[in-house]
Amino acid sequence: MKLTATLTTEELRGLAQSLIPLRVDLRAEPDDDPRWLDVDELYEAQMIADQGLSLAARAIVRWPERALFDEFRTQRVELLLVPRLEPSPEGVALAVHVRFGALDVAWVPDFVEQAVVDAINARLAKSGAELRWNMSGTLTFGFDEPGEQSNIERICFGLPNATLTVTADGVRVEGEMTISLRRSNPETMAQRLH
Prior knowledge:
Helices cover 21% and strands 52% of the residues. The protein has four helices and twelve strands, in the order βαβββββαβαβββββα. The strands form three sheets. Strands 2-3-4-5-6-7 form a six-stranded antiparallel β-sheet. A three-stranded antiparallel β-sheet has the order 1-11-10. Strands 8-9-12 form a three-stranded antiparallel β-sheet. Strand 10 and strand 11 form a beta hairpin. The chain is elongated and about 85 Å long. It starts with a strand and ends with a helix.
C-alpha cells in the first residue's frame, strides 16, 4: 500500500503566514547577551524546486555589536525552509531546517550584513532549530485481533521508508506502508477450539 502526502505551495504559504509573528533566539549560548530575530510581516513566499520554501519578510533584529546598533529594522530578511527526510529510530522523520539567506539594512555595508547572516546561520545550525516529525513513529502501529475466531493475534502497519520531492508546486512525501501479521501457533488455536 502506498501513502502519498502533498502540501501545495498555497498550503505552505498559509502555514508560513500562521507562524508570524515569529521570534528566533540567536544567542550562541543561553547566558549570552540577548539576540533575536523578530519576523513581523511576511510579504513573499514561493517554492523553489529541489530546495524548499523561500520566504521574504520584514523583521527586527537584536544584535548587539560595536559595528551595529543594538536593534534595527530590516527591509528584507530572506529565509529558506528546507524539508529533508532523515533517519529516525523507527525508520524516517521529516525535518524542516531553517536557513537564513539575506539581510537588507539600508545603512549597513554588505560585508557587515554578510557577517551577521553567516553568524546567524552558524547559530541556527548549532541550536538544531528545526521542525521535526517522526513519520515512521507516527505511522507505525498495530492492533490486536479482537476475536478468537482466527489464528491472527495482531495486525501491524509500518512506514519504514519514504521519498521526498520538492517542486515549484509544493512538497510530496511518498512511502510504502508495510502490513504484517502475528499469528498464534496451531496448538493454541486447537486448544481454543476444544
